[in-house]
Amino acid sequence: MTKSANLGFPRIGADRELKKTVEAFWKGNVSEKELLATAAELRKVHWNLQHNAGIDYIPSNDFSLYDLMLDTTAMLGAVPGRYGFSGGEVDLKTYFAMARGNSEVHAMEMTKWFDTNYHYIVPEFEVGQEFSLSSSKVIDQYNEAKALGIETRPVLIGPVTYLALGKSKSEGFDPLELIDKVSTVYGEVLGKLKAAGAEWVQIDEPVFALDVTDRHKSAFKAAYSVLLGSAERPQVCLATYFNDVSEHFALFAEPGFEAVHLDLVRGPKQLEAAIGAFGEKTILSLGLINGRNIWKANIPAIFEEFSGMIEKAGKDRVIIAPSCSLLHSPVDLGREEKLDVAVKSRLAFATQKLDEIKLLADAVDDAGAVKDKLDAIIEVFEGKDALKVTDPFVTKRVSEITADLFNRKSEFAARKKAQAEALKLPLLPTTTIGSFPQTPEIRKARADFKAGTIDKQTYVQKMKEEIKHVVEFQDEIGLDVLVHGEPERNDMVEYFGQQLNGFAFTQFGWVQSYGSRCVKPPIIYGDVSRSAPMTVEWAEYAQSQSKSYVKGMLTGPLTIMKWSFVREDQPADVTANQIALAIRDEVADLEDAGICIIQIDEPAFREGMPLRKGDWQEYFDWAVDAFKLSACVVKDETQIHTHMCYSDFNEIIEAIAALDADVISIEASRSDIELLDVFQEYDYPNEIGPGVYDIHSPRVPPVDEMVELLRKMLKVIPAEQLWVNPDCGLKTRGWPETEAALINMVEAAKILRAKP
User: Fold this and answer.
1) Is the CB of residue 310 less than 8 Å from the CB of residue 303?
2) Residue 357 and residue 612: Cα distance in Å, rounded?
3) Dihedral sign (CA 305, 258, 43, 185)
4) Distance, first Cα to last Cα, the chain
């Protein structure tokens, strides 16, 4: 029988049980015992779900209370000194302090996991660092599943990926130099898993989807010559994903892995090379079911494309699997009751992907035995209920895009002068990124309106009351450029998608973004257009409440596309331009309504980039144009802002400058404002607001700390270009800490205006 495998399952729960319990634990409303009990119940449900679906290799240790990279930091005892860890087992207090910070210490840096919208906690390393086994989680969860009668394949982030994705806290030090010390602990873990009875372990090394150097390759050889050289270990499946890694097959073949996993969704051509590159005894795990999107797999087409190569490899030598962990998919399509039938028939969430994996494995064994199931899939793709995705109006409008639509009327120098005269903002102007705390009262009002328990007039009144409160608070503390706080928005992408044509929405399609933060991405299934203004009424009302400028707040085309489950039947640049034209219409309407400052957020610009530098320019060419298409419709006096967060900007600063936004705000505080280094080498032409405090932490930084950060910024950014703002939106924070932090921020700006 052809074997099947899963690389990882969503950990949040079908009803986001993990999110709710973790946040209740943070607030002191549930005990540690209750938190751990909820986590154990979720693992039990997920293991049984995969077992009942017939999956042969079921993962364990793919579950985390926050993040697997953070779990690896705990496993290795690699806790930064500021958290006061003195050895032994890493407890939950230390664990969550690393993730979120607390009133006394700031959190570890957080950034995007490759080109996904998932964030990981970045490890920190220094010269002479030591490691020791400081968490038994991986062994405990294996034993936990075994007690339920389920044999699992524990998952570990590989040592090379772990070190390579970390950051050095010692100047000139390469974390990969720690590979021998780290490998010693990994060897200890493998030995304990072997002693516990584990037959297999999955070690993920996705770093090879990136551009790697000889240092990475040497570290790989050093690590796995030790780990695979030990007799006291389980069999090891090396898992790669997110790219074609065939250029590294000779490297992967050398240590002698018992199995190698390949992402054949991202790199379908690498299977043929793999058959010859790895010995006949090496099992090939074939990632044929897309773990990152929600479209139903066309299994007959996949079978037709790969069956010949599978026959060549040998059925007993292959495992059928998803391309990557199903972490990036919602949990269960079966709970969706309101989706259009034609849309729903084309979807598969994580639970359904398990069935797809099993069906494809059965087809490899005997396609005739599952012919009825395969025919049913063909009917979905070709039958009478096929999706209607094309809008002639949108097609025509995209075809009529000309080069002049991508540029502002004047160069930035002329715009800057015009905006200075029109807006008359002070030196070091203060603002926020957009959202304010989403209180339980706001969420209840939105839910009541959606459920029909309050009418539209009542809902609008409640939202206006909140907007008035937010605007008055900002005026009271002296912010220079205000926002309306976005109380009417459930999510920065979903809000716009609900008002655009070509989108569908789920009730329970949540995926984890970071920690307890979950998002419910819209589904782009057809051509995108705007039928009516989306934000103008709210912006006009907010502006009417203040004599200060209130920003119009929009989400950019790249982020709307990247943070949705996007259609796969047309090129990404076409979809981006369709969305850009819709946003362009909104920008024009906001300006006509008297809104003088408009922010078009693009936090997904960085993650949309291909993983290898050789492919970047092609992406920049159309991605920059999409943003400019959305923005370049206003007069010179209107100031266009954009926002980006938790990304490495240093290598792409020229592309960011090419966006030609008048002002960009970016994350800076959590990464120790290291991104400012680029401004010592690159003369950034426009205005910029590096965040002065981390909004993902409950910690309120004091005034003197913000002043110090701003002074560092002023060493590389002229005061005439510098804005003062938080790292990101304030949606997830409470009002007390928001008030305190913003008051401190405004005071810091005043101090520096008086004495730069």
Assistant:
1) no
2) 29
3) negative
4) 73
- DSSP structure class, residue 517: E
DSSP 8-state secondary structure symbol assigned to residue 339: S
β-pair partners for 260: 238, 284
Query: What is the rounded (10 degree) CA torsion for 71, 75, 76, 78?
Result: 50
Confidence band of 103 (pLDDT split at 50, 70, 90): confident
651 pLDDT more than 90: no
Inter-residue long-range contacts of 731-737, CB under 8 Å, 24+ positions, other chains counted:
731/435, 731/436, 731/437, 731/438, 731/486, 732/437, 732/438, 732/517, 732/695, 732/696, 733/437, 733/695, 733/698, 734/437, 734/698, 735/437, 735/439, 737/698, 737/700
Nearest to 244 by CA among 650, 575, 608, 614: 614
Give me 557's structure tokens: 């085309």
Sign of the CA dihedral 277, 281, 282, 287? positive
Percent of the chain surpassing pLDDT 90: 88
Predicted confidence at residue 649, as pLDDT, reads 72
Q: Which residue has the tokens 């697997």?
A: 68
Contact 744, 701 (CB under 8 A): yes
User: Which of 706, 702, 693, 711 lies closest to 756 in space, CA to CA?
Assistant: 711
The 10s digit of each residue's pLDDT in 200-210 is 999 999 999 99
- CA 387, CA 229: separation in Å to the nearest integer? 53
HSE, side-chain direction, 13 A CA sphere, residue 135: 24
Two structure tokens written together for 290: 């897309």
Buried b (16+ CB within 10 A) or exposed e, 94-110: bbbbbbbbeeeebbbbb
Distance CA 563, CA 114 (A): 14
Radius of gyration of the chain measured on its C-alpha atoms: 26
Q: Is 77 left (phi over 0), alpha (psi -120 to 50) or beta?
A: left
The DSSP code sequence of 579-618 is HHHHHHHHHHHHHHTT--EEEEE-TTTTTTS-SSGGGHHH
Residue 727 · residue 667 · CB < 8 Å: yes
Cβ neighbourhood burial of 358 (10 Å; 0-12, 13-18, 19+): buried
Phi, psi of 664 (to 5 degrees): -120, 135
Give the position of tokens 């920065």: 492
- Which residues have a catalytic role annotated? 696
Q: CB of 264 within 8 A of CB of 271?
A: yes
Q: What is the 3-state secondary structure (H, E, C) of 440-452?
A: HHHHHHHHHHHHC
Cα distances (angstroms) measured from residue 131 to each of 86, 110, 181, 296, 310 = 12, 22, 7, 44, 42
Q: Give the bridge partners for 688, in sequence order.
A: 664, 722
* C-alpha closest to that of 609 among 621, 597, 625, 601: 621
Say how far apart CA 260 and CA 286 lie, in whole Å: 9
Would you give the DSSP letter of residue 677? G
> How distant, in Å, are the alpha carbons of 85, 115, 210, 367 from that of 273?
47, 25, 19, 25
pLDDT digits (tens, 9 = 90+) for 278-319: 999 999 999 999 999 999 999 999 999 999 999 999 999 999
Assessment of whether the complete model's pTM goes beyond 0.85: yes
Buried b or exposed e, range 179-189, using 16+ CB within 10 angstroms: bebbbbbbbeb
Q: What is the DSSP letter of 670?
A: T
Per-residue pLDDT reduced to its tens digit, 556-589 = 999 999 999 999 999 999 999 999 999 999 999 9
Distances (CA, A) of 453 to 322, 441, 448: 42, 14, 5
- As to burial, measured by CB atoms within 10 angstroms (0-12 exposed, 13-18 middle, 19+ buried), residue 677 is exposed
